[in-house]
């Protein structure tokens, strides 16, 4: 119900009770420094008396947010439901939210002039969809935002503190791990599994050591998204003791050298370090490749010319001597223009097809 309608009804009421109420109100006005002849909007008086009940329309017609942060609802057929701002005099418990029983309209264009003392200014560091950090200034009355705008970028100290807080809240997943950093981390995890002298690069360990390797990376960064994959890899490499730095590529090379070039090693693969390579590129190889100083055989996923798996093995010589014959028979039928020697251990590696007519 609209408080303004009630007040009009009170003015028209000639009953002794109504007259007594008006006289009492007049005495209170004089005590407060006002008097007859002064007209103040009822909504403004309510807002001054109960600022936590100032309400702003949101969502569907009749849905409100109070300055206190609570939600409230007004019957959608009530003419006050079309107002953008209200001052609520009486609330009643609803099934899911408070229900407005008595309120008065507030002139939204007059809020700053009439209720300026209630307006608070709040500066917040906000991450935009682009990942850029900016300072947004909001003017609000409690939970109700009057307006909000970007006022600039944070200084370097504030930015670094914000990026640290983002890591503390979201963990290492907030960083953009690319192929280089992810690959190095997998290699270090593999070596740590062989020898505890290598750094532990699990999430828990890296977060515990964040001040040593990650905090320096955040200095000068504009957002976590701008920290490059290479910079992360460089920081991780800095965790490796000096005496082990030169052994990293020796014990856990990023690529396997082959007769025709090289192939990437996936140290994060299930079952241990793994290489996917066309089987024909390993013709002539008679020793199974290893990493970890010869301690760990690579898992070889051998592929057809169309790069479809034909065999997975940790014993290449055993494969040549055993199940190769069945694979060869199948491959000759599928890819007749490719060479499929009876003894691949003595054949020349290739990634070419046979000339036509041969």
TrEMBL record:
Record-linked Pfam families: HrpB_C
Region: Disordered, residue numbers: 335-358
Record-annotated ATP-dependent RNA helicase HrpB C-terminal domain positions: 213-344
Entry's Gene Ontology molecular function annotations: helicase activity; hydrolase activity
Keywords for this protein: ATP-binding, Helicase, Hydrolase, Nucleotide-binding
The protein, known as: ATP-dependent RNA helicase HrpB C-terminal domain-containing protein
Natural source organism: Brevundimonas mediterranea
